[in-house]
Amino acid sequence: MRKSNSTLSKILKYIGKYKFLMLLSALLALVIVALTLYVPILIGNSIDLIIGRGEVDFGGIIKNLTAAGIMILITAVSQWAMTYLNNKVTYQVVRDMRNDAFEKLERLPISYIDSHAKGDVVSRIISDVDHFADGLLLGFTHLFTGILTIVGTLVFMVTISWKIALVVVVLTPLSLFIAKFIGTRTHDMFTLRSKTTGEQTAHIDETVGNQKVVLAFSREDESIEAFEEINARLEKASLKAIFFSSLVNPTTRFVNNVVYAAVALTGAFTAIATAGSSVPFTVGQLSCLLSYTNQYTKPFNEISGVVTEFQNALASAARIFELIEEEDEIPDAPDASVLTNPNGEVSMKDVSFSYTPEKKLIENLNLSVKSGSRIAIVGPTGCGKTTLINLLMRFYDVCGGEISVDGTDIRKITRSSLRKNYGMVLQETWLASGTVRENIAMGRPDATDEEIISAAKASHAHGFIKRMKNGYDTVITGGGESLSQGQRQLISIARIMLALPPMLILDEATSSIDTRTEIKIQEAFSKMMVGRTSFIVAHRLSTIKNADVILVMKDGNIIEQGSHTELLSINGFYKELYESQFKTVK
Predict the structure, then answer these.
(1) Count of Cβ atoms closer than 10 Å to residue 314 Cβ
(2) Which of 58, 130, 221, 556 could share a disulfide with 361, CB 3.0–4.6 Å?
(3) Which helix (H) or strand (E) holds 365?
(4) Is pLDDT at 1 greater than 50 in this prediction?
(5) Strand 362-369's sheet: what is its strand order?
(6) Cα separation of 524 and 540, whole Å?
(7) Distance in angstroms (rounded) separating the CA atoms of residues 339 and 306
(8) Is the model's pTM score more than 0.70?
(9) d(CA 34, CA 38)
(10) Distance (Å, rounded) from C-alpha 159 to C-alpha 42?
(11) CA 101, CA 98: separation in Å to the nearest integer?
């Protein structure tokens, strides 16, 4: 319950930005309730004029009904305006929460992204926010009018008959008790439902993103079984939450019907008992009280429905706030400098790093790279090659020691300026939704068409781009799924060739390209790397023969380093790796 209160206070902070609109909505609710409550009085008066003694006062009846009609019309307009305001506030709050969640996503450390299912993160920003919006809108719709109706009807009922009003007051708390009792127990159920929904979204995202792998390994049945298992748990969690929460409405309706019956019986006996007295309790007053009883109990019925959605909204909001309140990436140091036009001298001193404290990865790593050098990094899978790149880019910070560029510890350099000075081509390419031209110009949005085309030619992407339907204006969607892996990689290479940063990181940059094109791109890379410090991660050792220094890594340590010729001459681990790629299987 304490967690729910905490979540509610955070929601109120978001709503607080729109106090003026909420005030207007409250005023409109006051108008709606006041007019709605006055209409039964006019109708009750008309009834008394019809069944009263003497001649029927048609003029008075028409006057009352005309006034009632005008009030009903004003109420309808006010209801429309209030609904509009409530929708506006709801979706502005939802917009703010989504913006905050997405902005948080951009500030989260890479470690968070690596350790959380992407589908679950997407589910929080999309599905959970939608569920929250539904509950919030339903709450706004009934909040002001419900409270004012309950208070207003009681006031009007007391003015007509305080004894009958007392009957209503005594019986209705039972309805509130039932709603609260069930509502507080369904919060955990809705939390489980939201969590399972996120798990399901993650599984779907994983399956869709890797469908070729699923088909290649004939894992369709296993994938379906895993989905069905999650789906069954989601069904169970949803049914349980909805079943228990749905008990609120019928039980409160039962109590409300009891209240109505009690008012009808008490009023009827009062009318009979006071007939002929100087202050009789009239049929019109009874009609008015019954109408008020309906209006009084209606908010309780609506609130019982709100309880279900509100518990769901709170559970969804809690998941959103969990994301929003995650710790940001460690901010740049207050005195961090901006790296501009670096020479590209990179050094590592006693660097140690591990993703988890219990599993050591890199320890006491030392390296000195001169400006303009080509450094190749090789080694078996899991030896720390990609981790080394992550540390150079400050996707992760070292656990011990330091990495410096031009003599400055990179922790004293702003991340943005450090990363802008590296050009990076990864084995796993990423293309944004947009035109081919926009994707190539990502690192230099102000580049001219001639420069973009020149970069595409240098990367040997120009040929296939010109064959596309709209050439450089062809729109890429879905991360470039319509392109081959090799074509996506060529566009990524063109992107770097256009930006030409002072330092380069090539992580299996030509792994998806045919051998003939690879030879040409290697030539283009050779020209591009002149005067630029370059780190090249490669499994195909034939591609890094011309590197100035080859670092051989094993178990997080550099065990050998030197040129290709030097490493072959020492008959060490590098020679084993190199020769293993050229052995002929007989």
Answers:
(1) 23
(2) 556
(3) strand 362-369
(4) no
(5) 362-369, 346-353, 400-405, 408-409
(6) 18
(7) 55
(8) no
(9) 6
(10) 15
(11) 5
